Amino acid sequence: MTKRDYYEVLGVEKGAVEGVLKAAYRKLALQFHPDRNPNNHEAEEKFKEAAEAYGVLSDSQKRAVYDRHGHPGLSQSAGGAAGFNPESFTDFSDILGDFFGLNDLFGGGARGGNQNRAQRGQDVRYDLEIGFEASMRGMSADILVPRMDTCSRCKASGAEPQDGLTVCPMCRGKGEVIYQQSFLSVRRTCSQCNGRGQLIRRPCIQCKGEAYIRSDRKLKVNIPAGVDTGTRLRLTGEGQPGANGGPHGDLFVMLKVEEHPVFDREGNDLHCTVPVNVAQAALGTELDILSFDGLKSVKIPDGSQTGSKVRMRGLGVPNVNGHGRGDLFVHLDVRVPTKLTREQKKLFEQLRESLPAENEPNEKGLLDKVKDYFI
User: Fold this and answer.
1) What pTM, to 2 d.p., does this model score?
2) Is residue 339 in a domain?
């Protein structure tokens, strides 16, 4: 029987690009697929014809030979005659997988061999709260972490070591079974053994067939100076065990630092507020500040106002990577006395007489300034 022109089969022009070819083939494949046309020999042949046409035209080398010499050229080429070959047609899963689940048919889905591949264990999170001073200086902490450990008796097989496992009768140890679907061979993961190829005949008496045993593991965590709330410390290999001999996951310790009653932290800088009286603010003074480095002297300049701050370099939080420290900022709160002795009141009256009144008008009154602003 004379073969139809491949471009005619797909209903595309001779210069059609790959995207047009794929769209045309997808439409025909969905229309004539044997699962949608059971016991329809004509539809099955059209499906094969469309697949053969796309198999040639989507291959640049075969397409070049076909464009120059037609069907005879393909028959004489090194690749042999063109024809429908689902074993070598790898684009099926990309085109039809969403509609017919053909990823399993052509090896794109879960295979029995992959079920037994070593897999890394899951990571574990542990929340730890520490004091503010501990975050400044660093510390070591002992923590108790619950996790699953591989059963020492069955080595994570879930079965008794000697005769606990038996070959799966459905897949005969291969982990997958092959069905015939129309003219296609369908390969699927064995549903009885889930791709392991073996079944548990006698569960392990230690883990009751679970393969893992829950345990509490005591670990020491080294916390460097400078950590803050949200800092994450990683302990490699202290997470859940991996499947089929895979490596353990990791343990992540998430830190929360308690607030301090005196100091506030902003990045690596510390801030605190110190009250001073009017005389100290006006004349300047020297105060002793209790910092995390002991008692430190800070000079308050004369004429300081409420909200003024004095910077003390290098007395802040250590950088968590070990390089340098932040600063300590001392904020001033100028306190006005509410009760005065007779002598203090007399001194303040004398001071009031000698100082200019801050609310006396100079060039223009406040009302005049407001008028000028709006006019």
Assistant:
1) 0.58
2) yes
